[in-house]
Amino acid sequence: MSILPVIDDLCREAGIGASAATDSSTPPVLDDFSRHYYGLKGRAIPFDPAIIESIKSGEIKTELSIARWDADFADAPFLYALLMRLDILGAAGVRVYFMKEARSSVSCRLGGT
After folding, report:
1. Selection from 41-45, 55-59, 93-97, 100-104 with the highest mean pLDDT
2. How distant is the alpha carbon of residue 42 from its chain centre?
3. Res. 13: pLDDT tops 90
4. Of 34, 98, 102, 107, which residue is most buried, by most CB within 10 angstroms?
5. For residue 55, is it left (φ>0), alpha (ψ between -120 and 50) or beta?
6. What span, in angstroms and rounded, lies between the C-alpha atoms of 72 and 61?
7. What are the residues facing 88 on neighbouring strands?
């Protein structure tokens, strides 16, 4: 996930720690999973509860969830799975922020013409 070096730099500057739990094409939801070719598919079901337990341990106060939200959320069970996860984290006092993953790489040219 290309945003991780930026988060790492920001945390270092602020003097705070951060943890990352990622897997390609595996958005953070409970009891459901992305059917995308590259995702964990059914193996994702135990992945998120383990992350939630780690977050609920008390050391993590804020979560940044990054995914291609429009890729899987057309179906109601997937949305319900995300809302269940938000209820659990909210009850634990965790702030959750969402970021939409870019669909493709963006390049720019720096300097001269």
Report:
1. 93-97
2. 17
3. yes
4. 34
5. alpha
6. 27
7. none
